[in-house]
Amino acid sequence: MTSAAENRMAVAKGQVLFRPGQECGGFVVVHQGTVRVSLTAANGREIVLYRVRRGDVCLQTFSALVHGTAYTAEGLAETDLVIEILPPGAFQARVAEDEAFRARLFAAMADRFSDLERLVEDVALTGIPARLARALLRMANDRGTVDVRHEALAVEIGTAREVISRQLAAFARAGLIDGTRGEIGLVSLEGLKALGVED
Hints:
Layout: E1 8-11, E2 16-18, E3 27-32, E4 35-40, E5 46-52, H1 59-67, E6 74-77, E7 81-86, H2 88-97, H3 99-125, H4 128-139, E8 145-147, H5 150-157, H6 161-173, E9 177-178, E10 183-186, H7 189-196
Antiparallel strand pairs: 1-7, 2-6, 3-7, 4-5, 4-6, 8-10, 9-10
Helix pairs in contact: 2-3, 4-7, 5-6
């Protein structure tokens, strides 16, 4: 019998794991790294739906396997990955026969649905300043900086690059951040946190 470790594979950062219209080849188990799942609208605007890390479930993959449908979003290796792919038959068998696997799967799915509910709430009910403040706090590194381009921030919160540029300039004038291109320094964490909870 082949061990789980022998089924693991390395995937380089930047590689597309799946895209809209592609058939699902199996259930992806992330052992290391992060997969970013995003959706692109007809007008070309893109938004990050969620990220899949160790212990998480990709709803796109789960739905495709359960319903026998193709992917409707894109999965990108945001970092270098170590993953394992369970073929559809093996996945169905695990769900049916392995109680512990089934319990972990359902718990992870519940967490993922909560993430999507928060995303819908953010996009529908929360203004750009609060959404951007939350994204900056979430993406900050240990040095209190965010190394990201305006285009990536726009994808993160589902808006246009020009909107991000204007809002970052406003944050800089308010003394919340320092610098608006390439590396953004978070000057006032408390100010950003306060802004992030505003409706």
